[in-house]
């Protein structure tokens, strides 16, 4: 049955009025592709000094943080196990790839900052692999499995919207999880000592302030992460502005550089 444009417009107007009246508008969610892309741009601004996260598949360097090589779109590290998991997944999806030969070395250096068995050609071969769509897809799969999905899942369980989901995601990217007191779960536990999340009857802004306070404390415990601008001049700015849905336009600073998403 064909419906006239006038009727459709009337129906949409009624829906909009009803939504505004009842407050049942769908809250912003990082699982939405556009919001996920925004989250990746913000993380990339801190990790790679650029919002162009899709240009970072081939990034690799040792940033002297005690975690060996840091590489790819989310900062997979040779010393923390996530790079090893990524290269193992790449082998599963494409046996005989250019990085497969480094798996024994990656197993040996896991937990250290050593480059033993990786130098001198690992960085070159990583950049070669990064041109392969299979490797790019593997990076995105591991980002989601290890970082993005767990962070957003916990954030939604705590009842926070897009800004809170991003705060969790950025924290787990930097600090990992399952590592001890200074990991993501440790940050959340410290915040729980100061406030309650919305799912437990707490105020969302109060909870996120407590979470960000706990995150800043944790960052200051590690010399490589003691610059807290990715919270202070980014997340905290949006929180103070009441932008809990992480609506654009967004302006922020990280490590002294200014960024914007229109």
UniProtKB/TrEMBL annotation:
The question of whether Transmembrane is a record keyword is answered with no
Q: What keywords would UniProt list here?
A: Signal
A Pfam family? Glyco_hydro_46
Q: Which CDD domains match?
A: chitosanase_GH46
Q: Which InterPro entries match?
A: Glyco_hydro_46 (IPR000400), Glyco_hydro_46_N (IPR023099), Lysozyme-like_dom_sf (IPR023346)
Classification via Gene3D superfamilies: Chitosanase, subunit A, domain 1, Chitosanase, subunit A, domain 2
Residues spanning the signal sequence: 1-27
For this entry, the protein name equals Chitosanase
- List the source organism: Lentzea sokolovensis
